[in-house]
Structure formats: C-alpha cells, structure tokens
Amino acid sequence: MLSRVMRWFPGWVRVETEGGYPERLLNDLTAAGVPVWHVRRREERTRFSCLAGDYRSLRPLARRACVRMRLRQKHGFPFWRHRYRHRKGLLVGLALYGVILALLAPRIWVVQVVGNTETPTGDILAVARQRGVAIGARMDRLDIKGLQINGPDDLPTLSWITVNPNSCVARVEVTERIPTPEVIDLSVPSDIVALRDGRILRVEVRSGRRLVRDGEAVTAGTVLITGRVETDLGEKLYRSYGEVWAETHRRITVSVPLLYTRPVPEGTVICRPTVSFLCWDFPLYSNSALQGEWIHRQTRHFLTARDMTLPLGVTNDYYLPVVEQKSVRTAGQARVLAEQQLAAQEAALFAPDSYELLTREGEIRDGTYVLTATYRCRENIAAEVPIGQTLPIS
Questions:
Q1: Residue 57: which CATH number?
Q2: 287 domain-assigned
C-alpha cells in the first residue's frame, strides 16, 4: 500500500513491447538502475510498469533491443493534474478541503456520557465543559487530569470521571458512588406522632416505646411512639424511630370551569432558522422583537452517523401568533378533563396498590364542574417531632 502511494505522486505508466529481444531490454533497464515491476509475457508481447519520469530513458534501450514500445496506461498525480488542469475550481476545492480538515480534525465533534444512571447527563456535561470538554474544543487542550481530580468534588454522586478521546468523539466515562447506609443519630430525643386520622394496621419500632395497638383509631397529632422509656435507673429520653402504617381516608376535589379562555391561532407562521456548526450558531433571520402572544415550536434537523448526532444541522423556530378567545365547555367535556386531572393527582399522591376508591361524585356548581372523590388508603402516618410537641414540624 505504501509503495502504491509513493508511486502515485510521481506517476507511473504501463508499457507494452513487441518483437525484438525484450529480455535484453529488461536486462539493460536493470543495469541502468531503472525500476520496473509487474512484468508479464504473453506470446510476442511483454508488459511492465515503470515510473513516468523514466519512460524517456527507455527509448534508446528499446531501439538497441529492436523492440517496439507502446504506452498502454497512465496513472498518478501528474496525469490527474493534467486531465483537470482547466478545472481550477476543483483544485481550489481540494485545497480548501485539506485546510478545513486540518483545522477541524483535532476538534471535538461529539460528546458522549456513559456509566450514569442516577446522575443527570446535563450535570455531567456541565462539569466536563469547565475542563474544556465541549463541542468545538481542541482534543489536545482537554484538562483530563483536572477533571479526574475535581470532577467527583463538583458532583458528589460520582466516584470517578474521565474522558477518553477517540478521533472526534470525546467519551465521558463516569462511575457513580454507591450510597452509604443512613446513620441514625439517636442522641436527639423525639416522639413519633400521627400526621392524620386513621386506624392502626402495623407498627414497626426501631427506637423508642410503642404507645398504640393494632386496630386502634388515632387522630392527627397523637403520639404513636415515644422517646420516654422507663428503666431501672428512671426515665430515659431517646430518639424515636420507626414506621406506623394505618388505614386513612382521603378526599380529592377537582374543579373545571365551563367558561374559559384559550389561545386561538391567527395570522402567518414565522420561521426563524439557525444553522449550527460545532459550537457556532448562525441565525438566518433578523433579530427583531415579536409582538403579542405566540405559540412557539422548535424542530431540529442534524446529521447523524452511527447513532451519533453530529454538530451540523439546522434548527427551525416556528412562531404562530395567537389571540385569547372565550369558549364554553360542555358538561361532558368538563367531566373528561376533571377525570384526567383527578387521575394525575392520584398518581402523584398515592403509591400503586395503596388506595381504594370509595366514592366519586361530579356536579355543576356556579358554572364549574366539581368532581369529588374519597379514598381508603394504606400509608405511613408517622412524623418525628421533638419530645413535648404533639404536631409535626412543617
């Protein structure tokens, strides 16, 4: 492969000889120090290759050997240059390509983060960017040692972080810290009180003295586990710690007005494209302020290769003017919207399989659809407070 590249730049030709004494010609070429290769003999014809600059020196030797020479093929840079000598734009483009390649090859095109499950990727990229790991930065200027030393201090959830440069890809590899078990400080005396009314189902005491029985009804603020423990030496104060599971009742109310205002599109959509290349953005629009209310939507069209997004593409920001318009919902529409909001609150408040729907009632009241639901729940109602207080500290 290297020999082919070395021959391509000075150029080489394929020569065919006929008649005479081709063996004598080859011997004379060897004696004269003219390199030849790919020698082939077929009937009365002999073919071989030599450098383009040595072709003229073959003529006197060919006459001495009484052979006729023909030039069959031409290869290499001199012939390529002669063929495209009138296409100066192509040569300029190749030269420009070489310059751009020399400038951009040592820069970062893609930054990947691997090894994280709990730590957000954006936080890792922000820490790595402080050490020069960013799209468009030079690979030879990365502060890898500084990132390895200071990265875990900036992100306490990481135990290790480093960068492995590979071509134009900077691969940020992290190892997350294994969480240490929670250490309970038992030196501060406290009680466990009830957050809300309920019927006790199960009590797990890890520290302190239990005051309630299973099946007992309690109200909010009742002391469930106390840190006052009687011993042979008298009363001792401890920190209470544990869980108290109880059956409770909850109520959720959702209100949806029938008369409301909503944005209605009106006018022509404005598109503002931006061309992005590496770390540079080139807006293709005037930076004039938009008046009134708008609905904004953004689409990104970037080149991809091997499941990687390259830093070359166009971002289109669409702005649609809107006006506020009063509208009226039907009772059915309000009920569907209220049920969706109720389901969202259920998912936010309750753990799966920890509640049971008892009743759900909906009615229109003063132009508003009101949906009320009651639940029977199984939850931990324990809240820790300092000894002497009966209500949880908010």
A1: 3.30.70.260
A2: yes
Residue 53 belongs to some domain of the structure? yes
Q: Which two three-digit tokens encode residue 39? A: 């020698």
Residue the block writes with tokens 């070429």: 29
Q: Which of 155, 164, 160, 187 is nearest to 175 (CA)?
A: 160
Residue 55's domain spans which residues? 2-82
Q: Looking at residue 394, what is its pLDDT?
A: 47
Residue 24 shares a structural domain with residue 76: yes
Look at 97-101, 138-142, 244-248, 272-276 and tell me which has the smallest mean pLDDT: 97-101
CA 305, chain centre distance (Å):
15
Q: CA 309, 310, 311 angle in degrees (round to 5)?
A: 120
Strand 110-114, strand 169-176: pairing: parallel
pLDDT, tens digit, 9 for 90 and up, residues 7-49: 888 999 999 999 888 899 899 988 888 899 999 988 889 999 9
